Amino acid sequence: MFSRSRPRLTHGADAVVTGAGSGIGRAFALEIARRGGRVVCADISLERAEETVRMLDGPGFAVQCDVAVQSQVEDLALFAELEFGGAPTLVINNAGVGIGGKPVGAIGFEDWNWALGINLWGVVHGCETFVPLLRTAGRGGIINVASAAGFAAAPTMGPYNVGKAGVMSLSETLAAELSGSGVHVTVLCPTFVKTNVAVDGRITERSTELAQKLMRWTGFSPERIAVTTLNAHDRNRLYVVPQLDAKAVWLTKRLLPTLYTRGAGLLDRLLPGEPTPQSLPAVSASTGV
Ligand SMILES: NC(=O)c1ccc[n+]([C@@H]2O[C@H](COP(=O)([O-])OP(=O)(O)OC[C@H]3O[C@@H](n4cnc5c(N)ncnc54)[C@H](O)[C@@H]3O)[C@@H](O)[C@H]2O)c1
């Protein structure tokens, strides 16, 4: 139940959603429109963003934006201000990509840069660009989409874990900085959600299969995640850890961090087909390749 005085930021919002062309981002856009809002749907794929806009039950605007590129996020803010006739009231830094299946030392810097460029720098660009607008308006909200990976630190998911842990830390920092400003901050940390993230990313075949199975068995729908998160944001909740498995990992990691980490390593070694040191690419000491 909401008290009469509590502002429901997600109702009638002027919202910007990144990665709005699929999955959780699309579900956020649709739910905000259902709540009477206007949505700028940004995605690296204009076609996907336009598809989302056509599905909206209200006004929406599609725009191409690669969140890894600072100038494109700055252009996104200008576009939103122009369309809304003022600053947005809700910004959802959702765009992200999946990466996994290789242990540290076999990932390669190209993949590290690619994943962190989108999953971490994309959110940094969004916060650095939009926070001043929200702070000046003295109201509104930011929702950053992290993941349970941000605290679970599962083996062979290094770049994903690091990016999402960064998003959690950035959100916590922001929440402290913006407390009392009228601007809410929420960070979403789900485990599996039924979307395209496992097929569209850079994930080894074995890990893609495993992720898809877990998604089918335990995954929530993106619609359920969007509704839960927006309601939590209205209540000014900082953390949204929507699923039981995520809550269990969160608690165990906090109470027994060393045991948790050793257990995760053991489980990983027991899984069939895991990358072993023998299966890693050979590195010649003389040539470095
Ligand atoms: N699906 C899950 O199980 C799960 C779990 C935890 C967290 N997440 C996070 O949820 C967020 C949304 O992912 P999803 O599951 O809906 O995946 P998805 O692949 O269905 O959607 C991601 C969208 O982001 C867009 N995108 C990719 N790179 C981009 C870029 N550089 N700039 C702008 N847009 C870009 C894609 O085109 C796509 O439309 C991501 O941050 C992901 O890490 C997903």
Uncertain runs are 276-289
- What proportion of the residues form beta strands (DSSP E)? 5-15%
**Highest CATH level, the class:** Alpha Beta
Computed structural class: alpha/beta
Alpha plus pi helix count: 12
Based on the structure given, which CATH architecture is correct?
A: 3-Layer(aba) Sandwich
**By CATH's scheme, which homologous superfamily applies?**
NAD(P)-binding Rossmann-like Domain
Rg result? 19 Å
Overall pLDDT: 91
Lateral strand order in the biggest sheet? 3-2-1-4-6-7-9
Extended strand count: 9
- Given the C-alpha coordinates, what overall shape results? globular
Question: Helical percent range?
Answer: 40-55%
Question: Can you put this structure into words, describing what you see?
Answer:
- The protein has 289 residues and is of the alpha/beta class.
- It has one domain (14-244): NAD(P)-binding Rossmann-like Domain (Rossmann fold, 3-Layer(aba) Sandwich).
- Helices cover 51% and strands 13% of the residues.
- The protein is built from 12 helices and 9 strands.
- It has helices at 23-34, 46-55, 70-84, 109-119, 121-137, 149-152, 158-177, 197-200, 205-218, 222-234, 244-255, 257-270; strands spanning 14-18, 38-43, 60-64, 90-93, 99-100, 140-145, 183-188, 202-203, 239-240.
- The protein has a 7-stranded parallel sheet with strand order 3-2-1-4-6-7-9, sandwiched between helices.
- The longest helix has 20 residues, at 158-177.
- The termini are far apart.
- Residues 276-289 have low confidence and may be disordered.
